[in-house]
Write a structure and sequence with these properties.
The complex is a heterodimer of chains A (about 120) and B (about 120). Chain A is built from no helices and 11 strands. In chain A, strand 4 and strand 5 form a beta hairpin. The model of chain A has no long low-confidence stretch (mean pLDDT about 95). Chain B is mostly beta strands. In chain B, the strands form 3 sheets. In chain B, strands 2, 5, 6, 10, 11 and 12 form a 6-stranded mixed sheet that branches. Chain B starts with a strand and ends with a strand. Classes of the chains: A mainly beta (about 120), B mainly beta (about 120).
Chain lengths: ~120, ~120
């Protein structure tokens, strides 16, 4: 069955370290997204990609970067982790079959703690 | 600007009660899409429904029903005869913006539903 996976599921790191969160989908979806979830804020978009070599900033992109070298993967990198980046991170993907409004399917999430 | 408001932060009901979760959206686009997702205590996000702006028919799926009213910019979700397994955080989301191919989602802050036995 097609799926979307994230690794690691839990991560503890120290302030200032570089951290990369992996996202891998086997849906063959063109669209991929990274969100962070914090209490009271719902899900906020960090970065998104509509295909290989395409990346775009979301509403809370400062301190984060992504790259898309193939269809299946969109790794999220925290260049220099800060305590404010302690959060739960979700990756999602959607097809681009429709003109728009394609349903996003989410990975299980990564809980990141920055000490 | 696109915005979704879920004014109910937390709702508690007793099993078998009906409960309605409110969702109010803002967009200037005439074409847009609305979604509901469920996040149970285990943490994953589960897709429930997708509705486009041209289809105002209400939808029913088992104990779940959705009421879409463009006149009030609302897309409310009702659970009939609630069960403990319905306990979760529910998110409403809007997809709008032709410049993003309508693929960017704007999420509400979520409503936590507690169903007590």
């Amino acid at each position: 069955d097609a799926e979307i996976t994230q690794s690691p599921r839990h991560k503890i790191t120290e302030t200032g370290r570089q951290v990369t969160l992996a996202c891998h989908q086997t849906w063959n979806h063109n669209n991929m997204f990274w969100y962070r979830q914090d209490l009271g804020h719902g899900l906020r978009l960090i970065h998104y990609s509509y295909g290989v070599q395409d990346t775009n900033k979301g509403e809370v992109s400062d301190g984060y970067s992504v790259s898309r070298s193939n269809t299946e993967d969109l790794p999220l990198t925290l260049e220099s982790a800060a305590s404010s980046q302690t959060s739960v991170y979700f990756c999602a993907s959607s097809e681009s079959r429709l003109a728009g409004g394609n349903t996003q399917y989410f990975g299980p999430g990564t809980r990141l703690t920055v000490l | 600007a696109q915005k979704v408001t879920q004014a109910q932060t937390e709702i508690s009901v007793v099993e078998k009660e009906d409960v309605t979760l409110d969702c109010v959206y803002e967009t200037r686009d005439t074409t847009y899409y609305l979604f509901w997702y469920k996040q149970p205590p285990s943490g994953e996000l589960v897709f429930l429904i997708r509705r486009n702006s041209f289809d105002e028919q209400n939808e029913i799926s088992g104990r779940y029903s959705w009421n879409f009213q463009k006149s009030t910019s609302s897309f409310n979700f009702t659970i009939t005869a609630s069960q403990v397994v319905d306990s979760a955080v529910y998110f409403c989301a809007l997809s709008a913006g032709i410049q993003y191919n309508f693929n960017k989602f704007y999420f509400g802050s979520g409503t936590k539903l507690n169903v007590k036995p």
